[in-house]
Amino acid sequence: MPVVAAALIAANGRILLHQRKLDGALGGLWEFPGGKVEPGENPDSALVRELAEELGVAVDPADLVYLASASEPGNPHVILLYTCRVWAGEPVCLAGEAIAWVAPQDLLAHEMPPLDVPLAQALISSI
Description:
The protein is an alpha+beta fold.
C-alpha cells in the first residue's frame, strides 16, 4: 500500500515534522506529513491532498521532488518521501497533535515510526 510523505523545508533549512494523534496507531510519534494514496490517485496528487488536509497548505505538484522510499518485511506500507521548498499558506496542525520545525541534525532526536527513520537519514544525507 503506497503512502506519500513530504519534507517541507523552510528557507532557514528547518524541516516540518507532524506528531501523530496520541490515541491513534503509533500515537505521539513524529513523522513527515502525508498519507495513503487513494484508488485512482497518483502519488503527487495524493500528497497535495494530504498536505492540504493535514496542514492547510497548497502545494503545486511541480514543486515536489522525490527523494527516497522505505519499506520493511511484513509491513504492507511503502512510504515515498518527497521534498518541497515552496508552498502557499502557513502550515497549521489540522490532523495531529502538533507540528514542529526541526533542524536537520535534530530530526532523529524525535521518536519516529520505524519507516520514517531511514527516510530522515536519507533527507539528512541529501542536505
